[in-house]
Specification:
The structure is a homodimer of 182-residue chains. With 182 residues, the first copy, chain A, is mainly α. The first copy, chain A, has a domain of 127 residues: Tetracycline Repressor, domain 2, CATH 1.10.357.10. In chain A, 80% of the residues lie in helices and 0% in strands. Chain A is built from 9 helices and no strands. The structure holds a DNA duplex (18 and 18 nucleotides).
Chain lengths: 182, 182
DNA sequence: GTCTATAAAGCGATAGAC
DNA sequence: GTCTATCGCTTTATAGAC
């Protein structure tokens, strides 16, 4: 028996590496070690369902490891710092792309629009919540939260474009300082 | 006779809308109004050459309209402000994606790596040059230039993801202020 | 220079054996 | 549950008429 969850992470890497259109069933089969029969048994909806499940899995990971801690933290300042640690590890200092961000830029945005919107909206909201509870006013918290998410996404683009992970690291360092200051 | 230059802008829109893999020759033919024979006559190297030429055209546009003015400006502060005007118009307040940024995130980065690297490196360098000549120190100029390009790219991602062009506009407004301050 | 016809390969998806 | 064989379609690219 092949577990769906096991397959999902390998599946995610294929979508990350080649995009939705570039992730052919041949590549997916090679990466997962599964034949088409097994893949369609696990995901009856085919490639579209695979992508939907991958996005849901990513969303769940961020909800559990980033958003929920930001909202629930007793010491929100530490939760924000922990978020930067998690972001740096997850995106491998900019070497790993944000699949949800890639989808947002592509034509698949229409198909997966609500998942994309929700992922980013909850990120900004959870971060703004933590920033506000650490002493900022509401407007300033939202603005800074939005800017932090913007810079994380942009830093992935620029560090990959220049092939310099240091670009990502510098951006994170600067943002940590901004978030920590009152 | 069909001009290569005329075709390039329509070609660019197809790549922007569907990505490299999603831009099929059928779509390209429809968008340009040209048959395959004409397309291969204009671009003997096929789709890869089309993409290379599109990236070169975009690069040329930015070089002429953004980078060169930033480097040559007698009043660098005004050149930076003009850059923000041009960026806002070109990216349609975040509704239009940056094709070079999209390539940087995808698997085509390896194929077009040098074009992508050069486009962003020259953007950051030209902007840093203008910022320094407007009174900043060298290190601060480079850091701010890098952050501005990062935020432009990230603002495109987030504004598209949330389907809110206002996100892009807010980021540009904040950056203008940062760049104008001494 | 532009077209249509066609080739050869790859695509997503399905059927059916085991 | 996993495989292979296959369908029908689309892909990039070429050939050749005009």
């Amino acid at each position: 028996m092949t577990s769906r969850a096991e397959t999902l992470s390998k599946l995610a890497e294929v979508f990350r590496a080649h995009g939705y259109e570039g992730a052919s069933l041949a590549r997916i089969g090679r990466a997962t070690g599964l034949g088409k029969g097994s893949l369609y048994n696990l995901f009856p909806g085919g490639k579209a369902e695979m992508a939907t499940c991958v996005l849901a899995e990513i969303d769940g990971w961020f909800e559990t490891n980033l958003y929920a801690p930001l909202r629930a933290a007793e010491r929100p300042g530490e939760a924000v710092a922990a978020m930067f640690d998690a972001v740096d590890a997850y995106f491998r200092s900019g070497r790993r792309v944000c699949l949800v961000g890639v989808v947002a830029l592509g034509s698949e945005r229409d198909r997966f629009g609500e998942a994309v919107r929700s992922y980013f909206a909850r990120w900004v909201a959870a971060l703004a919540d933590a920033l506000q509870r650490s002493g900022r006013d509401a407007a300033g918290s939202t603005a800074l939260a939005e800017e932090i998410v913007v810079q994380i996404q942009g830093a992935i683009v620029l560090s990959r474009a220049l092939d310099q992970p240091a670009v990502f690291s510098r951006a994170m360092t600067a943002l940590r300082a901004r978030a920590a200051a009152d």
